[in-house]
Each structure stands twice: as C-alpha cells, then as structure tokens.
Amino acid sequence: MKLLILIRGVPGSGKSTLAEHIAYSHCYPEEHGIFNVKVYEADMFFMEDHKWGNKYTYDKSKIQMAHYWCQEQTENAMKKGIETIIVSNTFTKIWMMERYYWLAATHNYNVQEIICKGNFQNIHGCPQSSIDRMKKEFEYV
Fold first, then answer.
1. Angle formed by the axes of helices 63-79 and 98-106, to 10°?
2. Beta strands 110-115 and 3-8, pairing class
3. Cα separation values, 83 from 8, 39, 68, 111, Å
4. Over pLDDT 90: what percentage of the chain?
5. Is residue 69 a contact partner of residue 42, using CB atoms and an 8 Å limit?
6. Which of 109, 47, 92 is nearest to 100 (CA)?
7. Which pTM value belongs to this model?
8. DSSP structural state of residue 13
9. CB neighbours (10 Å) of residue 94?
10. Residue 68 CB: number of other CB atoms within 10 A?
11. What are the residues facing 87 on neighbouring strands?
C-alpha cells in the first residue's frame, strides 16, 4: 500500500520530529538495501550546505518556490514508486494540501493527515505573534 502522510501544525508543534520518527518506523530495506520512505518539508529548500554542516537561511520572498519545490519532490518520489512519503508543512489552510491530495489520487496513494499540537521550541525563529496568528487561523477538516 502506497501512503502519503501529511503532517500539519504551526511552527514548534512537533511536525519535523514526528515526521522523523514515522520515517524511521516505516524504514524497511528493499532488495538493494535502499529505504523506501522519503520526508519532505518546504524548509528543506532553505538549507544550505556549509563546511561545518547545514545552515538554515529562510527567505520570505522564496516561500512560494519552496512549496513548489516540496510538491515537485513529492511527485518525483511518487513516480519512482516510493512506498511511504511524508510531507511536513504548516498547512494552516485546507487549500494548501490540495495539490498533495491531487498527486495522491493521480499516483494511487492513500493519504493520512496528522495535526500536531505540541508546544516545543521553534527552531526556525518564527515570531510568537506569527505563531499565535497561525493558531487562530488554523483550519480543521
């Protein structure tokens, strides 16, 4: 069964951590030892490689490109037949997930939606006022 897991929540709610835990629990070697699970987040678009490791450099003017990149990575993984794909983004509005539901239907993936409501440290420096606004505007199905 091919599965697309959409993880939603405001910054600091535990989305990335949950995605990592789910990915680890879904890892199973294929015949060549390749793991058949992928995790994507729009934040990955803002990661830069440096000789001391990855550095997160957010640029608000590129957020739309980051989301297109995330959708493209998801579609490419579906075309490759990756069994489990996890997309972890804020998805505060229901319409923000429409493209992923369309991709799932097109490529015969079941969709599981998870909403995170934790209150953890926001590692990307999103202002608390923005997080409070997102919480207030968050749409539920």
1. 10
2. parallel
3. 20, 12, 21, 12
4. 66
5. yes
6. 109
7. 0.87
8. S
9. 14
10. 14
11. 6, 40
